Amino acid sequence: MEINVNTDNTIDRHQGLDERVREAVESSIGRFGEHVRRVDVHLSNQNGQKHADGDNYCMMEARVSGYEPVVVHAHAENLHLSISGAASKLKRALDSALGRLNDKKMREPVPVGEAAEAEDEFAVESDKHLTDNQ
User: Fold this and answer.
1) When comparing pLDDT for 113 and 32, which is higher?
2) Burial class of residue 127, CB neighbours in 10 A (0-12, 13-18, 19+)
3) Phi, psi (5° rounding) for residue 101?
4) For residue 44, what are the β-bridge partners?
């Protein structure tokens, strides 16, 4: 799984920040490794103040094989909280998305002949109750 970290000009990007992001992503969604090809992480401070209690923003976009990209957002008073919040949301979103994808793959369609027979039996049963005058 490839993890890309991007920041705007309001965030001081350094090796420690990249490692923190990688740890958060890998610890929260590592079990989806075979499904997730790439995660793009975008960090910014919405107020533009580098060290003030501003609105720190983290957006994570996971590229999943066989599925649309999964995107989550998190705002927090500091960057570390926004990163961990987004990682937690991404885990829940992937649980849901991949669960739906696996459900679709696991379902077996009912053969057309059997589906028609089942509908005919239901129609006959429901018609019986329409004529009952109880």
Assistant:
1) 32
2) exposed
3) -65, -45
4) 57
- pTM score, whole prediction: 0.70
The pLDDT value recorded for residue 82 is: 94
Average pLDDT of every residue of the chain = 79
Q: What pairing do the DSSP bridges indicate for beta strands 2-7 and 70-76?
A: unpaired
Determine the residue type at 3: I
Q: Cα dist. 72→102, 110, 119 in Å?
A: 21, 36, 42
Strands (E), the chain: 2-7, 36-45, 56-64, 70-76
C-alpha distances in angstroms, 18 versus 6, 35, 40, 41, 107?
Answer: 9, 22, 12, 10, 41
Q: How many folded domains does the chain comprise? A: 1
What is the span of the domain harbouring residue 127? 2-131
